[in-house]
Design a protein that fits this description.
Strand order of the largest sheet: 1-2-5-6-7-8-9-10
Largest sheet: 8 strands, parallel, barrel
Radius of gyration: 19 Å
CATH topology: TIM Barrel
Distance between the termini: 33 Å
Bound molecules: dihydroflavine-adenine dinucleotide
Structural class: alpha/beta
């Protein structure tokens, strides 16, 4: 409960414009702990560095909801550029995309622009043998993201597109069941947004229990699972579950955020587990940075210390 209160408080405060202005000014030096660079080259360099340690990358151009089709198309173009650049650099184009950043919810020529741009992006990833994960955003977007994921998976194949389910939402167990016919590649996370209690579990113990249940169900159904967490007790339990059920190490992977628990990432990779780091880059780092701060009280101290030094 304390965790939830802390998270809500940080997300509420960081949503205030004056706080954003202060943090942005102190900015980049602090954000670099969680963000690989402002340009695509930084992300590709980070992937290569991690690959040398047996850890794969998942690149994410930072950006969230945009209100105009022009901005959405511009953003989609930058994601296409990322895929081209990664391919040219000999790195598998594995990236995450928020559909709200490429026009979800805006209708252009009778089609949702998020889906149109999603097709361009997943199509390009497929051309290069890459993969796009559609990140999950706040709860009003879940229906549309899942339905657009289904469309893209049917058109391009689940080896080229996946999505994310959040264990804090009451609806998620039913959502996972409803996707089983696709045998989808899903990332399971706890959920990072400030959500009302009418849709999301307020108690961390329930979110954690729901997390395990979702991962186990997805594994038992024979699907590829991306275990997106830094929670060591969950990671241990998943390892034991897989062992007990004869699920091979190539049927799942652990995913963690760039700059978070690098020790654990290395340890798992050294033990032969698949590990992938989520590598954000770009200039629009503030919302992402705020969510990372909200996840852990010690991260606030890191910010305050940095500001006092600055
Ligand atoms: P929890 O918060 O219980 O933390 C477990 C342990 O890890 C604790 O010891 C904690 O201190 C440490 N830890 C967690 N976060 C930390 C941080 N930022 N810095 C330092 N230590 C930290 N969410 C979403 O809504 N949509 C999405 O698409 C995604 N995508 C995504 C991809 C990947 C690869 C990951 C790892 C996470 C996401 N998330 C996400 C975020 C997710 O919902 C959640 O907010 C964070 O992963 C934090 O929760 P944990 O599962 O790590 O557990």
């Amino acid at each position: 409960m304390i965790d939830q209160i802390y998270r809500k408080a940080v997300l509420t405060v960081s949503g205030q414009k004056f706080v954003e202005n202060i943090v942005r000014k102190q900015g980049w030096g602090l954000a670099q702990r969680f963000v690989a660079g402002e340009e695509v080259d930084g992300a590709i360099a980070a992937v290569k560095e991690l690959q040398a340690e047996g850890i794969q990358g998942n690149m994410d151009l930072l950006g969230e909801f945009v209100a105009s089709p022009e901005k959405a198309n511009e953003f989609a173009q930058k994601v296409l550029h990322l895929l081209d650049a990664a391919h040219a650099a000999g790195v598998m184009p594995y990236a995450s995309v928020k559909l709200s950043a490429v026009g979800q919810g805006q209708t252009v020529d009778g089609q949702d622009l998020g889906l149109t741009n999603g097709r361009r992006i997943v199509g390009k990833a497929k051309e290069y043998g890459g993969f796009i994960c559609l990140d999950m955003e706040d709860h009003p977007r879940v229906d549309q993201t899942l339905s657009q994921f289904r469309t893209l998976a049917e058109e391009f194949g689940t080896q080229h597109v996946g999505t994310v389910l959040q264990s804090y939402l009451y609806r998620t167990e039913a959502d996972r069941d409803s996707l089983d016919d696709l045998s989808p590649n899903l990332r399971i996370v706890k959920g990072a947004y400030l959500e009302p209690e009418s849709v999301a579990m307020p108690d961390k113990a329930d979110v954690d229990a729901s997390y395990r249940k979702l991962v186990y169900a997805h594994m038992k159904a024979g699907n590829y699972v991306n275990i997106g967490t830094h929670d060591e007790s969950i990671i241990e339990d998943v390892k034991h579950f897989a062992l007990a059920h004869g699920i091979e190490k190539d049927a799942y992977e652990f995913q963690m955020l760039y700059g978070v628990r690098r020790d654990l990432q290395r340890e798992l990779a050294a033990a032969g587990y698949r590990v992938r780091a989520y590598i954000p880059y770009g200039r629009d780092w503030y919302p992402y940075f705020s969510r990372r701060i909200a996840e852990r009280p010690a991260n606030v101290m890191f910010i305050l210390k940095g500001m006092l030094k600055g």
